[in-house]
Amino acid sequence: MINLNEVVETNLMIEKENLDVRTITLGISLLECMSDSVDTLCRKIYDRIAYTAKDLVKTGNEIERDYAIKVVNKRISVTPIGLVGSSCCRSTDDFVKIARTLDKVSEAVGVNFIGGYSALPVKGMTESERLLIESIPEALKETERVCSSVALGSTKVGINMDAVALMGRVIRKSAELTADKDSIACSKLVVFCNAPDDNPFMAGAFHGVTEADAVINVGVSGPGVIKHAVESVGSGDFGVLGETIKRTAFKITRLGQLVAQEASRRMGIPFGIVDLSLAPTPAIGDSISDIIEAMGIESTGAPGTTAALALLNDQVKKGGIMASSYVGGLSGAFIPVSEDQGMINAVKRGSLSIEKLEAMTCICSVGLDMIAIPGSTPASTISGIIADEMAIGMVNQKTTAVRVIPVIGKDVGDTAHFGGLLGYAPIMPVSRFSSERFISRGGRIPAPVHSFRN
Amino acid sequence: MHKSILTVVGKDQVGIIAKVCSYLADSNVNILDISQTIVDGYFNMMMIVDTNASTKEFSALSSELSSLGDGIGCIVKLQREEIFESMQRI
Question: What is the complex's ipTM, to 2 decimals?
Answer without folding.
Answer: 0.88
